Predict the structure of Lipoprotein signal peptidase.
Amino acid sequence: MPDQHNGKQPVAYGIWVACALFLIALDQASKLYFEQNFDYLERLNILPFFDFILVYNQGAAFSLLADGSGWQRWFFLVLGLGATGFILHLLKKHKAQTFFCFSLTLIMAGALGNVIDRMAYGHVIDFLLFYWGNVYFPAFNVADICITIGAVFLILDEILRIRRTKQEQA
């Protein structure tokens, strides 16, 4: 059945899974590189506003709940696996919505990349550090980039869907 929005055939479910696996592999390879080649808290300046650094995050985004007593590891692990199951369901159900599925694939890849860290190490490995003067953005990784871009695309997809619906009703 052609995609109702662009006249193209829907992307096969397996392609989304393969894309996610590729992104997970990229995330894990980059984390492994920094884990093996940097000491904890070691920084390497790349640009006046960007460094590589090896840090560990036991919490979520912006180190949310990082100071917990350890329960947060399991909470975020279950949350990531639950989100993955739900996303896999949505990918099958909405296969004709290519941009929506791409957005979900990015989020799923990022979630699983960080779930792997939590299972293997008990924390997430971060290594990208942006700052301006004394103002620092929390360090992050490839999985976090996937989640962020996926979330932005998901919002954009919804805005575009609403606009299409309004145009069709006009």
Notes: The longest helix spans residues 142-169. The CA atoms of residues 46 and 52 lie 7 Å apart. The chain is about 60% helix and 15% strand.
